[in-house]
Amino acid sequence: MAVIGARPATGIGVFGRRSRVRPRPAPRPRSGAGRRRREAASISSVLVAIAAAALLGIFYLTQSGHVLATGYQIDELRTQLAEAQAQQAQLVYRIGEARSPAVIERIARGRLRLVPLPPSSVTFAQAPAAAPSAGPGATTSTSTIDTAR
Known about the structure:
Order of helices and strands: HH
Helix content: 40-55%
Radius of gyration: 53 Å
Oligomer: single chain
Shape: rod-shaped
């Protein structure tokens, strides 16, 4: 059975098809108005594309400038942090040095003109002697020690 107007299959897929011959559109009248409209439309689309590219370029440059300025701020803050850490390390060293017994003694003898006491003038408090116990179960008298200073 044959279908009227059917053509035989010549190929399947994109590369196997024959190109169809399309009829040419009817020629347009040569009026300047239609051509000018097409030219104006193409010029306006080119201008829109140029404006969009310019805006994207400006946006990129502002973002790059902002990133650059932020990078400079980060570098400056890192420098300040390193200086503060060095100052802190120097202060910790000076505190440790000032706490050493040799430095304290040198300052006491030099600036303050202090001298150590002779050992004979130093006396220590003696603990009271414990009373002898009478044995298990014996009662002992308790003595009161004056703790007032």
